[in-house]
Amino acid sequence: MSLSRLRTDFQFAIVVLFGLVAVLGIVPFAIYRFSQGELLIAGMDSAVAASLLASVAYAWHGNNVERAGLMLAIFANIGGVVAATLLGWLGSLWMYPLLLANFLLISRGRALVASTLAIGWVVIDGRMFGSDLHRLSFLATAAVVCAFAWIFAQRTARQREKLEALAEHDPLTGVNNRRAMEHELLLAIEAHKRNLSAYGVAVLDLDHFKRINDLYGHEAGDATLRAFTALVQRSIRKLDRFFRIGGEEFVLLLPGVNADGLAMSCEHLRASIATQLRYRDEVITVSIGTALLRNGDDIASWISRADEALYRAKTAGRNRVEAEGRSDTRSPAGIEPGESSLAR
Q1: What is the pLDDT of residues 290-338, one digit of tens each?
Q2: H-helix or E-strand spanning residue 157
Q3: What gap in Å lies between CA 273 and CA 210, rounded to an integer?
Q4: Sheet containing 199-206: order of strands
Q5: CB of 244 within 8 A of CB of 173?
């Protein structure tokens, strides 16, 4: 799961890749210094490398990525300052990649504080500088690096936010799309593995939606989809997540529900749509298939069970909720199972 997350979670990828690259850069020096009998510096290198690996492992196993980035930044800053103190001018060279890393791993405000403290320590200690000119040169170059890193981090964050908004939202309805759904389901699966958190998923499909397009045109279909998504968003909880995955098919992720809670939530949603959603004089209904997250599930197996339940809802008459492995036939007053509201 974490391998897939490397492609979908920018901050997670930064934390993992920075930690691994930093370890690969430090370990050869630790080995060399051990071979030269420089045990203190070699031990310091080993401790920093081990701390970085621990931070990467913390993020890799599904823990808080922001906290993992902060851990990496703390360990890296301590290592950089100690290296500059023990190795002098040669060690201070490690400060430059460290300053850049600060603005990638943590927020810009925290990065500025961490970088200022690290630079201040090195400048005040001063033992690696041969003269005041060397001290001022280091201060000036370090400040320039921080300024460039700040600008780069700011612009990158803005561009990433814009791209993520475009990449993860459906342009017609404004709800999250399939890419965002896969990311959210992956996080849910990892949370379930860690602490057995309960999650349910529902696949929703508007009944006879093609007839709306055929009878009234695609603009009517688009208006119906927008009205449907607005109604769903008003009906679900704030912590629920709603996605359009194509055409008239949608997915709803519901955290913290058991089988009864999932069935009740989806039945309430189905009834709300059947009683409130209209296009002109046409009643519009939805079929829903549900599935709870199980141990050992991946995204495909979890969604597949909900899809199978949706298929049963469609073949059994539409405008109903079907749970995995059982039939929950429900329809509003005046609409019998098997009777399409659009066909009335």
Answers
A1: 999 999 999 999 999 999 999 999 999 999 999 997 644 444 433 333 3
A2: helix 132-168
A3: 17
A4: 241-246, 249-255, 199-206, 286-292, 321-323
A5: yes
Q: Is residue 336 among the annotated active site residues?
A: no
Band of residue 340 on the pLDDT scale cut at 50, 70, 90? very low
Strands 241-246, 286-292: pairing is unpaired
Compute the distance between CA of residue 143 and CA of residue 99 in angstroms, rounded to an integer: 9
For range 175-184, the mean pLDDT: 92
pLDDT for res 31: 92
Q: What is the pLDDT of residues 76-128, one digit of tens each?
A: 888 888 888 877 777 778 888 889 989 988 899 999 999 999 999 888 888 77
The active-site residue out of 184, 248, 282, 322 is: 248
Show the DSSP H helices in 201-247 as ranges: 209-216, 218-235
**141: its two tokens:** 């170059």
- Distance of alpha carbon 280 from alpha carbon 337, whole angstroms: 23
* 8-state DSSP, 131: S
| Residue 321: closest CA among 281, 286, 278 | 286
**Coil, helix or strand for 127?**
coil
pLDDT of residue 218: 92
**Secondary structure of residue 62 in the 3-state scheme:** coil
3-class state of residue 286 by DSSP: strand
Token pair recorded at residue 227? 């009205």
216-234 exposure pattern, b = at least 16 Cβ within 10 A, e = fewer: eeeebbeebbebbbebbee
Q: Whose CA is closest to 289, among 343, 325, 339, 332?
A: 325
Inter-axis angle of helices 108-125 and 95-105, to 10 degrees? 160
Q: What is the dihedral of CA 177, 179, 181, 182, to 10 degrees?
A: 160
Residue 330, CB half-sphere, CA atoms under 13 Å: how many? 20
